[in-house]
Write a structure and sequence with these properties.
Length: about 240
């Protein structure tokens, strides 16, 4: 079983600040090593705070997004201008404020059917990663949120199709329990292959989901991620028994 490195914060603001600092440090390390940084973004409330902190820190000279290529952990099958689009969230709160060049941004085309969107997203990632056919491209960092049912990306509990698919980089999701029902998501295999996976679990209403995911033999989507990797970093403001206050 993999290891979850749990880092607790007293507030979501403190969580967002710490993750922003850590992410900028990862990007700086990539610069120093002369390589690009491939990241998969997620949506959600805590991501809004994270993007705000990154913009603030970059504006203060604490980092740069040069050499970063942006992908997504999942996207709803909606046009890019839709208010629920994960791409739109990043465009408005991260890319536009930092004037990130469009050739660094590789959005999932949510306006397409889920199957076609998944195929195009995988092809675009392979073009940047230059991985061989038959191998899974490797992200430097996958940023995930966690839902109240412990779903990550658009990998939901009880979805046999996504649970059993360990080879697809991106895969179509249908009949999601949250609207819209059609989505595109990173698969479990691609998440497992990433160099770093950071989970941002925020909100006390998710305590039960977090407990289930950390329990030995847990069966939630987050638990599957943890179990598939040697190490997963979990940043949270959720109070558990024994958590320092």
């Amino acid at each position: 079983m993999g290891r979850a490195d749990l880092v607790h914060f007293k507030s979501d603001d403190a969580l967002a600040t710490a993750v922003a600092e850590a992410w900028l440090a990862e990007i700086k390390s990539a610069h120093q090593q002369g390589r690009r940084h491939l990241v998969a973004l997620s949506g959600g409330r805590i991501t809004r705070k994270l993007f705000g902190e990154v913009v603030r820190m970059c504006g203060a000279g604490a980092g740069t997004m040069d050499g970063v290529h942006f992908f997504w952990a999942d996207e709803r099958c909606l046009p890019p201008e839709d208010a629920e689009s994960n791409y739109r969230l990043a465009r408005e709160l991260l890319f536009e404020p930092l004037r990130i060049h469009s050739n660094q941004v590789h959005r999932i085309r949510g306006e397409l059917a889920a199957e076609e969107g998944a195929k195009q997203a995988a092809d675009e990632l392979r073009g940047i990663d230059r991985s061989e056919v038959g191998t899974i491209p490797v992200f430097d960092l996958v940023l995930l949120g966690m839902g109240e049912d412990a779903h990550v990306a658009s990998l939901f509990p009880g979805d046999a199709t996504t649970e059993g698919d360990l080879k697809s980089v991106f895969l179509p999701v249908h009949n999601a329990p949250k609207p819209p029902p059609d989505r595109v998501s990173l698969g479990h295999g691609a998440i497992a292959a990433a160099r770093e996976v950071w989970v941002l679990a925020s909100g006390q209403g998710k305590e039960a989901a977090l407990r289930q995911s950390l329990a030995p033999g847990g069966g939630t989507p987050l638990a599957r991620v943890i179990q598939s990797r040697g190490q997963t970093r979990l940043f949270t403001d959720i109070l558990l028994d024994g958590t320092p206050t």
